[in-house]
């Protein structure tokens, strides 16, 4: 896999998560997508930085489920919810649960699939 492909895959999946959420609530998908994506995109970056920091003494492998995938997922979720709260966007418990589940499926799922195929 190319060096930046895993981050690109994660970012596309975060955008898809946000688009699905907007669509499921009958909100204009494209018109408000940036408003919905930016907190999770920043959380994704934080998750990546956390995963790279933890792996600083070893070789960082972005496509492993543990620890990279879990740290990236956790950073995306916690960071995304934190930035949503700071910006006055909703962080209802039901949304946190759905976001945690879908982001885990997306961000960990493709990594698990790669592992299973190897």
Automatic annotation (TrEMBL):
Keywords: Membrane, Transmembrane, Transmembrane helix. Coiled coil: none annotated. The keyword Transmembrane helix applies. The chain crosses the membrane at residues 7-25, 37-55, 62-86, 92-114. Signal peptide: none annotated. Pfam families: DUF3054. It comes from the Bacteria. This is DUF3054 domain-containing protein. It comes from Nocardia lasii.
